[in-house]
Amino acid sequence: MFRLPPYLLCLVLIVSCNDKKATPSSQNKVIDLTQHVNPFIGTSKMGHVFPGATTPFGMVQLSPQTHMEVMYDSIGNYNPLTYEYCAGYQYKDSTIIGFSHTNFSGTGHSDLGDFLIMPTTGNLNLEPLRHINGQKGFYSTFSHDKESAEPGYYQVDLDSYGIKAELTASPRVGFHQYTFPNKEQAHIILDMMYNVYHHDQKNVWTFIRVENDSLITGYRQTKGWARTRKVFFALSFSKPFKSYGHKKYDKKGYNGFYRRFEEDKNFPEMAGKDIRAYFDFDVNAGEKIQLKMALSNVSTQGALKNLEAEIAHWNFNQIKNQAKADWNLELSKIKVDMLSKDQLTTFYTALYHTNLSPIIYEDVDGNYRGLDQNIHQSDGFTNYTIFSLWDTYRALHPLFNLTQPQRNNEMIKSMLAHQEQSVHGMLPIWSHYANENWCMIGYHATSIIADAMVKNIGDFDQKQALNASVTTANVDYFEGIGDYKSYKYVPEDKSLSSVSKTLEYAYNDWCIAQMAKQLKQSNTQKSFEERADYYKNVFDASIGFMRPRLSSGEFKTDFDAMDTHGQGFIEGNAWNYGLYVPHDIKQMIELKGGKEQFSLHLDSLFTMEIDDKFIEKTEDITRDGIIGNYVHGNEPGHHIPYLYNWTNDAHKTQARVRMIMDRMYGPTVEGLCGNDDAGQMSAWYIFSALGFYPVTPGSPFYDLGSPLVKEARITLSNGNTITITANNQSENNIYVSEVKWNGKTVNGLQLNHNELTNGGELVFEMSKTPRL
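Predicted structure:
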């Protein structure tokens, strides 16, 4: 019987019934699991997560934007440090320049940062940071002692002004509340120039329209990582502003003349490439000014609809409580008891991170902007975006098949819509905001589709999905696919990162074969099973490593298996990325010399030293995420600790998994060892803490590890529950002596998803010594 620990028997929430989107289940009393979430985990160094207010999979991510140091060019453009600020926030900073409404969570590249809002008092100042002459900008200093965050809520004292800033959100609306300390003149600045990354280069056009004395609308088009991106807004104030204006920073006017600083007051339409607007108020001591900003990727009319549908009132606490209830609903799908409160914090923050993206990408009426830049109507599904698939197919989407099957079904339908709108006929690779940015390699939507099919998830059109996958796998001009088909590997002299591409394509092709098998399309199955074997063609038996091969058929000379640069791999080397054959692990082990030799190879991987020269200039590989030559801070090796299960040393999987959970995750701001990568890093932890992991998505099997939980209960969408018990759990009892499913001993080291979803009890017997 699953029992809640005493410290989980805590505050309960009564969910407001006023929100039109509230579901009957969300109106019941639920345990407050948000108390175990720390949104600041991963906000230091390279975790690239944001601490601000959002809802599960919400379109709005309302979060502070910080900068520690700013360098200026000769004409005053500011260029902050870039890579650290993928999410717009670094915990080391002591200044806030405002609060933006869109932010990535845990990505290895940056974009977004739309519609920066900053409240100020005193003389109006429209420069965000230091002026060229050294004068302070509109930023504010802040202290972490007066900053806090929880799911759906963020607050901080802006010390430069004495303003208390509070943020919450609904799925499509950001809700601000600013409390002013004195009777004085206040300003709300709307910075349309600010962008995460390359601030002064991304804007194409901005537009603001003053509808009345408390409502403005507008939009911005940018050309960042997404080559063309439009976001519309409707901004409503809780009290009328007494005056307003803007400053235009366009470097050239329409006629070619230099027009860097152009200022207009009380002009109802503001248009230009780079604009900052301001709205003036007289406030009393202790007065609150509230703002609601609704987003749309369709139109300002869509933003107004979203505003009215989701927050038609000015009750800040009601929306804050609703957001908290929405988060409790998602977090309660996995209830756990662990060895310590720190582990609870680490677990539930990881679960929180897995529910931040992909995000809803449509208005309340179902309209959304498609990949073809036309406006589409979702039909029978909710449209989603932000598909970081090279990362998330590995564990995040398999986790969704346990905890979010309906959402994953809709995400697949969104991918199929993307493919229909693509001029290339391709499923998404790495897509966001109606754009394909072509980042990373492989066509991993096939993995997500195959995984859903073999696990009986969703009602998407499986034949359409197979056809879309086959079409994608035959776009010859994409990243060496044509050469891959012709040579049966990707030649390094024709396409860089050739080994990584060959390995990823081979796995993707195996996934397509699984789809075809399920649909009884034998010719397609056979064709892609043959392609799935192409990984063997880049294995050099003379050295025992995957190695780049040239179009001549010869292997690349001057090859270093340790090097992560120019050796046929992307974000990895032959030692770690060369073990990426998740669909044919037994054969890969035979190629590497058999079980005993392979186990020794894994031992060496985890214990060897790696010179700095091999990882320098590789943004996604840092010392924080490395154990020996095993790189947990990046995704290609996430399955590697579980590969001992295919040798005679399964106990080493158990030891390695527990070590990684202890060393690479934690309850502090540095509790992520690398980019969370849109939830993949956190999903690895969730699975591993529960005691199993999807080594081969596209297969119904999970591979057993060593659970960190004492007890867990997974509530499935079909009404069944999976109860997990780890008897004799302790810090020292890291080995598993026996596993039982519904009272029967599990033979082997795998669990079947389709058996687990029937519900039942999974029991691990933990031991201090391995079962050899």
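Summary: Residues 498-518 form the longest helix (21 residues).
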